[in-house]
């Protein structure tokens, strides 16, 4: 165990010692670090800050016995393969600065600019005028293409090339390795003038190498979940480090043809899998959710693997060989889950799924299941989506669900407890994608394949609409501005999901804020009643339109009837399950089965 002061400890090293330690494999840069964006101007500014002894910010080092896959090279400078140690030191934050320092001193290759030499030179003739000088660095620090252009025609470069030949422009690595020779040559060229500006500049950069300290924060005895949190806290401007990055690095395996060992790269597997389902609305699922699904499948296949949960601590235990063993069946199960959402439940897009854990439980159901019972899945999905109690909100619920559905897979028998739903919760569910019940209602509307009012034989939520500019919109049946102007209802009733329907974008724009009595007349064709039923919309509103009269409290009456239609449709979905409706709005119970 480490004390509080040992767990997170500041430290510092000179630039030269830090880079030497890196080259001698003391530090590793894990593969989850992002690609470096290398720019000449930024490298010069970095060195200007060092030259002025400004702080650069800390390098974050994680000391651990966990083996991660690390970069084989940095800026083209190669490192040893298959490096092993009792304690690894990973650079979690500071790759950009490290790469810039390393390549500007030791040279290398810059991605997408292979012919560019990143070695940095200093022009000893450029003086620092004052502490606020913020321009001279561009002339003081130079790259080779600023000293010797290919054609030798740039006037500035002609002068620099002469100073280079006179050893007044020297590389940083040359100052580190041959300082005495450079100093001796300068003394001779300035006639032994001890305080000559050129000599002062040389001493200053030598002092930088000797005395400028790079700050470190060392993390030791800290688990991966806390490391991710620390990384995110100190790296607000960048992309947070997450558990998926860690697992990718830990499970990486290089190909070794000599020993017949295949390579393994989890990120690439995820990306290729998403490409195979690119036509699905679910192809943009995040890697973290996919990783949790993978952990569930590994637990099913290898109970002894130690994957007791889907938290970061247990995701960190995923092993390459276990992932390889389940991968083929995992892909099939996930694809079936997405197909079930898309083509069985007719829910077009992940933002409508009431519980994120449905991805995990339904994939667990499809995993190695040759004869899935879609009648069971329908009941399962709608039962838990609408049940008055939130029954899939934590990992305890998750494993209870997985046990339940696995029993069904084995025995082909199942039974649900009494289904409870509060009628008032449906009335008060608001127009939003937030909240389990709101998404459940919108999913239920989508499940009934609502038809376009202007084109009655076309489903509003068909893939065609998603690919066209005429995309599905959510529309207030009693428009917001109409309600405000007429004063027939409150804002709460207006925003109720009982006042919402899916319409195509063009139809929605055409209706705008019109009185429902008026706009329904435009669509009052023989098929309109069927169309309204596909939206679970009470046809009484069509009768009001034909009579050209809205009753008092029209929206309240409409909402009440639509709640009843939704409950009746839900009762059909849950046929055979005891169905209990109660109304906290009226404080009376109504039990039906």
Shape: elongated
Helical amount among residues, as a percent range? Answer: 40-55%
Radius of gyration based on Cα positions: 34 Å
Catalogue the unreliable spans: 464-469
Please describe the topology of this protein.
Blueprint lengths: L3 H4 E7 H9 L16 H12 L7 E6 L8 E2 L2 E2 L9 E6 L1 H12 L13 E4 L13 H4 E3 H4 L7 H11 L3 E3 H18 L7 H15 L1 E8 L3 H11 L8 H9 L14 H11 L10 H15 L10 H4 L4 H25 L13 H9 L7 H13 L8 H17 L7 E4 H5 L8 H12 L15 H5 L4 E5 L3 H7 L4 H4 L5 E5 H7 L4 H7 L5 H7 L5 H8 L6 H20 L5 E5 L4 E4 L2
Parallel strand pairs: 2-9, 10-13
Antiparallel strand pairs: 1-9, 2-5, 3-4, 6-7, 6-8, 11-12, 13-14
Helix pairs in contact: 8-9, 13-15, 13-16, 15-16, 16-18, 25-27
Features:
alpha+beta, four-stranded mixed β-sheet, three-stranded antiparallel β-sheet, 14 strands, 48% helix, elongated
What does this structure look like?
There is one protein chain. This protein is an alpha+beta fold and 593 residues long. Helices cover 48% and strands 11% of the residues. It has 28 helices and 14 strands. The strands form five sheets. Strands 1-9-2-5 form a four-stranded mixed β-sheet. A hairpin with a 4-residue loop joins β13 and β14. α13 crosses α15 and α15 crosses α16. The longest helix has 25 residues. The two termini are 59 Å apart. About 1% of the residues have low confidence.
Short note summarizing the structure:
The chain is an alpha+beta fold and 593 residues long. The protein is built from 28 helices and 14 strands.
């Amino acid at each position: 165990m480490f004390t509080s002061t040992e767990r997170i400890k500041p430290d510092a090293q000179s630039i030269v010692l830090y880079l030497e330690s890196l080259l001698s494999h003391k530090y590793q840069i894990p593969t989850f670090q992002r690609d470096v964006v290398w720019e000449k101007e930024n490298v010069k500014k970095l060195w200007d800050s060092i030259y002025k002894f400004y702080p650069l910010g800390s390098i974050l080092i994680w000391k651990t016995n966990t083996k991660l896959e690390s970069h084989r090279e940095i800026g083209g400078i190669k490192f040893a393969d298959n490096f092993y140690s009792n304690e690894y030191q990973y650079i979690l934050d500071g790759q950009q600065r490290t790469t810039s320092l390393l390549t500007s001193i030791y040279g290398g290759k810059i991605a997408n600019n292979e012919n560019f030499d990143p070695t940095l030179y200093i022009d000893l003739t450029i003086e620092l005028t004052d502490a606020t000088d913020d321009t001279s660095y561009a002339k003081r620090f130079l790259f080779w293409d600023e000293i010797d252009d290919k054609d030798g025609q740039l006037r500035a470069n002609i002068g620099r090339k002469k100073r280079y030949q006179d050893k007044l422009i020297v590389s940083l690595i040359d100052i580190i390795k041959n300082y005495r020779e450079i100093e001796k040559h300068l003394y001779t060229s300035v006639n032994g003038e001890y305080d000559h500006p050129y000599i002062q500049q040389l001493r200053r950069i030598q002092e930088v190498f000797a005395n400028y300290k790079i700050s470190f924060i060392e993390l030791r005895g800290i688990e991966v979940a806390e490391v991710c949190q620390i990384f995110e806290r100190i790296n607000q401007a960048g992309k947070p480090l997450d558990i998926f990055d860690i697992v990718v690095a830990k499970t990486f395996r290089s190909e070794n043809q000599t020993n017949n060992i295949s390579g393994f790269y989890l990120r690439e597997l995820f990306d290729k899998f998403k490409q195979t389902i690119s036509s699905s609305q679910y192809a943009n699922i995040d890697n973290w959710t996919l990783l949790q699904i993978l952990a569930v499948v590994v637990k099913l296949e290898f109970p002894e693997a130690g994957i007791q949960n889907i938290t970061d601590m247990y995701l960190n235990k995923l092993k390459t060989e276990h992932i390889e063993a389940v991968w083929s069946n995992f892909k099939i199960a996930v694809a079936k889950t997405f197909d079930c959402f898309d083509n069985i439940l007719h829910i077009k897009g992940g933002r409508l799924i009431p519980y994120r854990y449905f991805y995990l439980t339904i994939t667990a159901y499809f995993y190695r299941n040759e004869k899935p019972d879609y009648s069971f899945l329908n009941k399962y999905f709608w039962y838990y989506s609408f049940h008055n109690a939130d029954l899939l909100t934590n990992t305890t619920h998750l494993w209870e669900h997985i046990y339940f559905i696995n029993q069904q897979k084995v025995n082909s028998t199942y039974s649900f407890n009494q289904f409870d739903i509060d009628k008032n919760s449906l009335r008060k569910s608001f127009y939003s994608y937030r909240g389990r019940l709101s998404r459940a209602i919108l999913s239920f509307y989508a499940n009934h394949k609502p038809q376009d009012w202007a084109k009655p034989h076309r489903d509003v939520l068909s893939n065609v609409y998603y690919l066209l500019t005429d995309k599905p919109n959510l529309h207030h049946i009693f428009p917001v501005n109409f309600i405000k102007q007429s004063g027939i209802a409150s804002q709460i009733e207006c925003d109720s999901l009982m006042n919402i329907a899916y319409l195509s974008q063009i139809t929605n724009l055409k209706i705008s804020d019109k009185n429902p009595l008026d706009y329904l007349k435009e669509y009052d064709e023989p098929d309109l009643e069927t169309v309204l039923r596909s939206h679970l919309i009470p046809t009484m509103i069509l009768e009001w339109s034909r009579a050209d009269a809205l009753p008092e409290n029209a929206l309240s009456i409409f909402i009440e009837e639509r709640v009843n239609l939704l409950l009746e449709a839900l009762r059909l979905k849950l046929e055979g399950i005891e169905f209990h409706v109660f109304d906290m709005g009226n404080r009376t119970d109504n039990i039906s089965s």
